[in-house]
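Propose amino acids for all 225 sites.
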């Protein structure tokens, strides 16, 4: 349902806006961003932009599956070509709506935009996205720690969102629980087992990005023409 809505939203946004997602971490195993290739995302079952990481993930996830356990993941979604000016400075911040949209996806437990939590370790000088005039007479940013959103409004830079997906709760290992009658018990799941639902979340994250951007674009047209 979400992906279908995202397909409609992409039509509203037009060909000038490009939205792509990738899996950048499984468990403790993150990609090497120096190896990032968007073309690689379609060449492996993990939507992974790092070909080397994708190969190592295959063996790791197979071990998790055979053990009847599960692992979490981090998904990154990037929207390029987003026009500047979408969003509002207080109650309808673009980043706030994106955060809500991503958190509404099943199993998502955390979200960050731009540098995200890493910004807590940066100085004000390092975190600032400085600007200069480009060769074509346009303002250019020298970095994108803000993730394409400043003061709740799109800056014209790529909008970058990452969200963390928890490990699948339905595992084959018995876990302690309590019955409805108030007695201690154990529970384990039998049948279908998905060792990492984060893989499935990549196209869903893309769709939610598209829906939010399309919503704000339509608001902008209605308000500003």
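Proposal:
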């Amino acid at each position: 349902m979400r992906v279908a809505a995202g397909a409609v939203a992409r039509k509203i946004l037009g060909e000038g806006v490009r939205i792509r997602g990738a899996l950048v971490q499984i468990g403790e195993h993150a990609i090497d961003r120096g190896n990032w290739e968007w073309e690689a995302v379609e060449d492996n079952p993990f939507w992974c932009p790092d070909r080397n990481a994708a190969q190592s993930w295959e063996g790791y996830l197979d071990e998790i599956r055979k053990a009847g356990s599960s692992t979490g993941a981090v998904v990154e979604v990037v929207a390029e070509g987003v026009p500047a000016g979408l969003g509002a400075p207080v109650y309808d911040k673009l980043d706030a709506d994106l955060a809500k949209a991503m958190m509404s996806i099943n199993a998502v437990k955390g979200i960050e935009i731009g540098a995200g939590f890493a910004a807590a370790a940066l100085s004000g000088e390092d975190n600032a996205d400085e600007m200069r005039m480009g060769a074509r007479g346009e303002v250019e940013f020298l970095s994108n720690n803000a993730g394409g959103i400043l003061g709740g409004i799109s800056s014209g830079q790529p909008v970058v969102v990452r969200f963390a997906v928890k490990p699948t709760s339905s595992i084959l290992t018995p876990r302690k629980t309590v019955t409805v009658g108030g007695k201690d018990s154990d529970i384990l799941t039998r049948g279908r087992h998905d060792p990492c639902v984060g893989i499935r979340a990549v196209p869903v994250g893309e769709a939610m990005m598209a829906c939010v951007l399309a919503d704000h674009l339509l608001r902008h047209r209605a308000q500003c023409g």
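The chain has five helices and eleven strands. The chain has a mean pLDDT of 95.
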